[in-house]
Amino acid sequence: MTATIHVPAIGGAHQFLHFLPVAFELAATEGCIVRIFAPSAADADRIADLAEQLGTARPEIWVMDLPPPLAAILPRAAHKVARLLLAAGRIRDCDAILCAERTSTMLKRMPGRCPPLLHIPHGAGDRAVGFEDRFRLFDKVFVAGDKDRHRLIAQGCATPENCVVGGPVKLAEMMRIAPERPPLFPDDRPVILYNPHFHRRMGTGEVMARRLADAVCESDRYNLVIAPHVRMAQGWGEDKKARWQALDVAGRVMVDLGSARSVDMSYTAGAALYIGDVSSQVYEYLVRPRPCLFVNGHHAAWRGNPDYAMWRFGPVIEPDDDPVAAIQHAFDSWPDYAALQQERARAAFGGIVWDADGNARFAGPDPCARIARIIAADARRSGQAWPDSGPRDGVAALGI
Fold first, then answer.
1. What is the distance between the alpha carbons of residues 89 and 112, in angstroms, rounded to a whole number?
2. CA 145 → CA 133, 155, 267, 346, distances in Å?
3. Whose C-alpha in 81, 90, 109, 279 is 20 to 30 A from the C-alpha of 358?
4. How far apart are the C-alpha atoms of 380 and 132, rounded to whole Å?
């Protein structure tokens, strides 16, 4: 039986590597028809480029265009939901739906039949938002490791039957294709990555970015990459972007407000110290355990709180602490945290092991192939195949 799998890719390009490689694997699987629903032509191009980068066939992509009059009157923040609602009938016309965000659970709450809804969460962080009630609406969840599976089940958001450790898709793909990465700076100073989150209360970018840039330049011991979560600068005006870009110092401080390198592990792989607050990218950084430093910019009572479990991987400071002394302490104290870092990275990413030199690899099945195999089998069992319609080649405009 042919299985049709629809993939709404509405959460932003920073999510693509977490789940689209599975969609590409399914598209290459005999008996599977895969359609990816992109919110814009630009996103459709990014998806096609990603397929080429990963060496897979270009998938069928539908662009979820909004009628211009509706786009003009709706606030931009409502566009994602509007696209999803308008395309819901076509998206649900399949045997299974695969997504990386949880806005798509709206498809489950709408009247009429909804096929099984499958979820690959983007990231492996510890914040409470990553373990919320909408998980209950998914028929199956594929998490990166035991860490997230145990917590989802313990909180009643998933069951042992429908929560599967599939492995870290993005990590596996980047380890498979990443070439030898060039140095981030022309000299051999240790590189610090500052990766603030976009959250207005928990993110520390506004209070720490300039302090770190000034401290690094004055110390002459380190180089600095300021690469916040890509969502932070979305919607900023040119003046605010320029203010952040002004922190850039040639050869010493690099500011990246959302390029491809901010999501393809270029910075997490090339840094010698991670400074952050609540971004899940710290787990990608800990694929190779190294020093960490965390900034408590919102007076969190974090000790013993599972939402801040990552803050056990290095010293935690306040925004007004001396950054140079804190950086040195993070390097000096790293041996105290190294074993826990490796233990929790292993729990976060199923199948990862390290060789004697600290290089990571996968000991088990490839995550993309494993997850795709399960989805294909489940989709074929889900019942009668639904009617196939629309063009089969290239990028199609979705008639709404």
1. 9
2. 19, 16, 23, 8
3. 279
4. 29
- The letter for the amino acid at 245 is Q
Which DSSP letter does residue 387 get?
P
CB neighbour list of residue 356: distance below 8 Å, 6 or more residues apart: none
> What pLDDT shows up at residue 359?
84
Q: What is the pLDDT of residue 129?
A: 74
Q: Which residues of the chain fall below pLDDT 70?
A: 128, 179, 382-400
**Max Cα–Cα distance, the chain, nearest Å:** 67
Q: What pLDDT is stored for residue 384 in this prediction? A: 44
Beta bridge partners of 395: 61
Q: CA-CA distances (angstroms) from residue 309 to 170, 191, 282? A: 22, 24, 11
pLDDT at 34 (0 to 100) = 96
Helices (H) then strands (E): counts for the chain: 14, 16
- What's residue 392's pLDDT? 30
| Per-residue confidence (pLDDT) for residue 179, from 0 to 100 | 67
- What lies within 8 Å, CB to CB, of 268 at 6+ separation is 193, 195, 274, 281, 284, 285, 287
Cα–Cα dist 351/216, whole Å: 37
Please name the residue that has the structure tokens 């069928």. 60
Round to whole Å and give the CA distance between 214 and 207.
12
Q: Please state, in angstroms and rounded to a whole number, the distance separating the CA atoms of residues 327 and 330.
A: 5
Between the CA of residue 271 and those of 171, 192, 223, 396, what are the distances in Å? Answer: 17, 6, 9, 41
Residue 187: C-alpha distances to residues 195, 196, 222, 395 (Å): 22, 25, 10, 44
The CB density around residue 261, as the number of other CB atoms within 10 Å, is: 16
Q: How many residues does the chain have?
A: 400
Tokens linked to 288: 């190779």
Q: 3-state class of 17 per DSSP?
A: helix
